């Protein structure tokens, strides 16, 4: 069902973004490169999310799996720090939250596809996602 959701919702969304970037005059090679990096980052985010769900669901005894998923979703939404652009948090707290795996789930892929990261920021964000994926898989082992 996750693939069905991606194909029915995510693929048209991605297609519109790619088309808008090409129509705005960006190079096709650049757009395809960003799209590839976005899909790679999205895959890493999915794997980190799966590991996080597995860690939560298998580490604690939940009677209601919907409740554990809601808890995880709430934590990720709060800790992903995308609201920091409004200036709610201090620089120190913002830096700490940006290092945690939560921003790798939502914030990183979006910033890549909308072109808000330069090449060094993309590399740093992807390495951070790889780091958290390794940590999550090691914790599950």
Task: Walk me through this protein's architecture.
This protein has helices at 2-23, 28-59, 65-79, 91-99, 102-105, 107-113, 119-140. 18% of the residues are buried. It has 141 residues and is mainly alpha-helical. Helix 2 packs parallel to helix 7. The chain contains 7 helices and no strands. It is globular, with a radius of gyration of 16 Å. It is 79% helix and 0% strand.
Fraction of residues in helix: over 70%
Q: Could you state the order of secondary-structure elements as H and E? A: HHHHHHH
Query: How does the overall form come out from the CA principal axes?
Result: globular
Strand content: under 5%
Tell me the major beta sheet: none
**Radius of gyration computed on alpha carbons:** 16 Å
Terminal CA distance: 27 Å
| Uncertain runs | none
Count of alpha and pi helical runs: 7
For the secondary structure, the number of strands is 0
| Average pLDDT | 77
Structural class, from secondary structure content? mainly alpha
Question: Summed up, what is this model?
Answer:
With 141 residues, the protein is mostly helical. The chain has seven helices and no strands.
Q: Would you spell out the secondary-structure blueprint of this structure?
A:
Blueprint: H1 2-23, H2 28-59, H3 65-79, H4 91-99, H5 102-105, H6 107-113, H7 119-140
Helix pairs in contact: 1-2, 2-3, 2-6, 2-7
Question: Notable features of this structure?
Answer:
mainly alpha, 79% helix
